[in-house]
Amino acid sequence: MFFAKILLLCTVCALASATPQGFGVLGGPKQLEGQELVESQKTLQASLDKLAAGEGPYYRISRILSASTQVVAGTNDSYSVELIDRTGATKVCDVDIWSRGWLPNGIRVTFRCPNEPELIKKHNA
Ligand SMILES: *[C@@H]1O[C@H](CO)[C@@H](O)[C@H](O)[C@H]1NC(C)=O
């Protein structure tokens, strides 16, 4: 019984600590530099890897031109990035990663590439 209470308490704690992101301070986009830029590149890479392992698109990062992050309901990372497609061609695209990891399929990736319709893909965290 005691154990069950502790378990319940922990569940509540875990839920409480998982949600504040969604109710955090909302602010404008913040340009990323240095270590934060390195971390954001990992976020983008992880996302591209997940999509490539699924139904695509299939992109590799050539280089990130700029990146910014914003706290919304979750986190919204925006990239200007040179991508390499399967044919080895490069193109500069705007990519947004809207991350709400507590939702199923909570990562929403939007690709805006020149001469292509906007592409929106979702994947799990
Ligand atoms: C994320 O940021 C991009 C670029 O600033 C913006 O176009 C998009 O609407 C934002 N998405 C959300 C969910 O705030």
UniProtKB/TrEMBL annotation:
SUPFAM superfamilies: Cystatin/monellin (SSF54403)
CDD domains the UniProt entry points to: CY
Keyword Signal among record annotations: yes
GO MF annotation list: cysteine-type endopeptidase inhibitor activity
Pfam families (alphabetical): Cystatin
Protein name according to UniProt: Sarcocystatin-A
Keyword Signal: yes
Signal peptide: 1-18
This protein's UniProt keywords: Signal
Classification via InterPro entries: Cystatin-like, Cystatin_dom, Cystatin_sf
Residues in Cystatin domain copies: 24-114
